[in-house]
Amino acid sequence: MPLNTSARLSATTKRKLGQLAGAIFVSGVLVAGLLFPVAGGLGVASNRAAAAVENVSSELLNGTVPEVTTMTDVTGRPIALLFDQYRFQVGFNDINPDMIRAIVSIEDRRFFDHDGVDWKGTIRAALKNSSTGEVQQGASTLDQQYIKNYQLFVLARTEAEKQAATETTPARKLREVRMALTMEQTLTEQARRERGLGPTEAKQEAKKQIITRYLNTVPFGNNAFGIETAAQTYFGVPAKDLRVEQAALLAGMVQSSSALNPYTNPQGALDRRNLVLDTMIANFPDRREELENAKKLPLGTLPQPRVAQQGCISAKNNGFLCDYALKFLAENGLSRSTVMRGGYTIRTTLDPAV
Question: Is the pLDDT of residue 51 over 50?
Fold first, then answer.
C-alpha cells in the first residue's frame, strides 16, 4: 500500500513545510540551498517529491530488512549461513543505551524532540548551501538517514534504483523530508491507537522504533549490516553488551564505514570515536569523567573482523546437502533470493551422530 502523504500530513506539518518554503527567501532572493538549488526549482522539486512519495511501498512503514537465513542439522547446530546482507535484527531493548546515546549525539542531537525533520538545521543548511548553488550540507535527521538507507539497501534492486536513492537533487531531499514527516506521524498514531498511549508517550514509542530500525539497517563496513552484526564483527559481543567507547566507535563509523574502518585507518577511526565521545560529554555532562577516560582507551577491536562465510561453501563437507535443500525449497515455491533475504531457520535431516 502506498503512503498517501496528502491525507496523512497534519495541518501543523503542512504549515511547517510552508514555513520552510517561505524561509528560503532571503532579501528577496530564493536561497539556492539544501532543497531548492535553482530559483525555478521549488515547484518542480515539490511536485516530483510528492509523486515519488505516493509510490513508496508500505515496506518502509513495516521496516522489514534482509536477514541471515541459518541452515542447521537435526540438532539445531548451524551448518551454513545464507544471506545477501550479513544482518541479525535486534529490538530496542537489545541495544545498549549508550549506543543510542552515541548515535543521537553525533548524528541528530534533537532526535527525540523533532517530528522527523530538524527544521532549524534544515534552514541553516539551506542558508549555508546558498553560497554554492549546490546541495552540499544536508542536515539530515536520523529519520531521513533511515529512509535513504532503507531505499538504498532494502528497496533498491537495480543500479538505477540505487543511484536514485543517493542522487544529490532537490527532489530527493524534499522527498526525504516529506517521507520522514509521514513516517513519524504514522508510527506515532499507530502507537497511540494500538497501545492506548498518550501523545507524548506515543511519540517516544515511535522514536524508539525509528532509531531501532535505523541501527538495524545501516552498514558498518566489513560486510556488517546492522548494530548486532557490527558489535559481533568488531568486538565479538552482542549489541546489548557494548561498552561506551565501543558504541562511540560504531556510531562514528556510520558517516563513512570504508574511510573510518578501524583496520585500515585506525587513527581516523580513533579520532572519530573521540569526537563522538566529546559530543556525548556535551550532552551528558554528569558523565564527563567517565567519557574523558574512555577517550584514553585503545580501539579495542578484535585482531581481525569476525566475517562470516556466505552460502553453501560455508557448509564445507555438507555443501551438497545445502545445495540440495535450496533446490528442494525452490521447487516448492521458496526461491533462492527469498531464502537469502528472509531470515529463516532451515532445519535439515543431517544427523552429526551418524
Answer: no
